[in-house]
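Sequence, please.
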């Protein structure tokens, strides 16, 4: 079958790809602005020249000048050519500067650099199919912790814990809690602060992440939380916990089915599994309208799917979908599953599951 070449369509598509290229460039420079504190230095300030901004941020003026060029033509920073000064509008600062709002999109832009740094390894994996290990992703746990602070940690008390009726009261009275795939432990540490009568433990396969979690808990003088470097697919806990959580972790596992079975076995009668995971449909056709659809598939290909395959695993990927998640929860022994979506979190669904 032959098709007729449509020059206008080709030109329109080329324009779309140029837009993607410019968007990726702005994202990378936005990440740099976050990491170097430039957005914070510009926030709530009068118009600044490049030397003034460099001095305020303690950075090289030449680099700051070039960064301002990208931010100006990218529509992030406003420029007054008459006096050559730069301003970060309050509306832009609200989504880019630290502490300006609950959601800092500049922090999320760091994924461009984190994932891009592993491009050579991922390209090779396209040929050998074995995946790419966590060790290839520099700063992964650091950036993931910033994401967790915004979507999970900040929402625990007001939005996430209330998803389970009566859970806050049980936590105040004192129960045993496990977090699977705890990473550097920010969510568990926050719960330990909020509910000092309860006992918390976090499992993660990454020794590096567990060490960071332990250090954080020690600095915060938390005595009711501990962390262990353990693969949840091989854990042997039986009826040991009243609550088990997994925040954006199950789809990364090498053997997610085994993890879910072990979670069900580790819950005591009346226990609850609270799983946060990516909002998606199992079929790509159902994901066209996802607010961050291209990002979900990109981070999946560049990390989530690949690290699972590197461990000899299933390689579910971030877009494993609500349908498959419900199927796997049922197969693991969860007979009562409720799915919720929270208004502050466009990326995830929340599964409240009980065995039986």
């Amino acid at each position: 079958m032959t098709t007729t070449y449509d020059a206008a369509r080709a030109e329109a598509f080329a324009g779309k790809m140029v837009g993607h290229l410019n968007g990726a460039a702005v994202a990378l420079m936005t990440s740099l602005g976050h990491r170097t504190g430039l957005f914070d230095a510009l926030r709530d300030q009068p118009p600044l020249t490049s030397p003034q901004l460099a001095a305020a941020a303690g950075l090289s003026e030449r680099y700051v000048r070039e960064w301002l060029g990208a931010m100006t033509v990218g529509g992030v920073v406003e420029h007054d050519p008459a006096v050559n000064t730069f301003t970060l509008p309050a509306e832009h600062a609200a989504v880019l500067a630290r502490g300006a709002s609950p959601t800092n999109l500049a922090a999320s832009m760091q994924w461009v650099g984190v994932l891009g740094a592993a491009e050579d390894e991922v390209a090779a994996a396209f040929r050998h199919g074995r995946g790419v290990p966590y060790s290839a992703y520099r700063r992964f746990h650091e950036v993931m912790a910033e994401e967790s602070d915004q979507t999970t940690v900040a929402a625990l008390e007001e939005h996430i814990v209330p998803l389970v009726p009566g859970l806050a009261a049980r936590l105040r009275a004192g129960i045993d809690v496990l977090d699977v795939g705890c990473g550097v432990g920010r969510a568990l540490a926050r719960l330990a602060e909020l509910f000092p009568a309860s006992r918390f433990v976090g499992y993660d396969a990454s020794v590096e992440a567990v060490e960071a979690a332990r250090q954080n808990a020690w600095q915060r003088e938390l005595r009711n939380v501990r962390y262990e470097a353990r693969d949840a697919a091989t854990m042997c806990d039986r009826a040991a916990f009243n609550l088990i959580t997994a925040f954006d972790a199950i789809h990364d596992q090498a053997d997610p089915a085994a993890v879910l079975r072990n979670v069900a076995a580790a819950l005591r009668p009346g226990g609850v599994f609270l799983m946060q995971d990516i909002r998606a449909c199992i079929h790509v056709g159902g994901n066209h309208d996802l607010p961050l659809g291209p990002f979900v598939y990109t981070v999946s290909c560049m990390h989530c799917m690949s690290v699972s395959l590197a461990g000899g695993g299933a390689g579910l990927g971030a877009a494993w979908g609500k349908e498959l998640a419900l199927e796997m929860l049922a197969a693991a022994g969860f007979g009562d599953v409720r799915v919720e979506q929270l208004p502050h979190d466009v990326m995830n669904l929340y599964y409240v599951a009980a065995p039986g």
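The chain has a mean pLDDT of 95.
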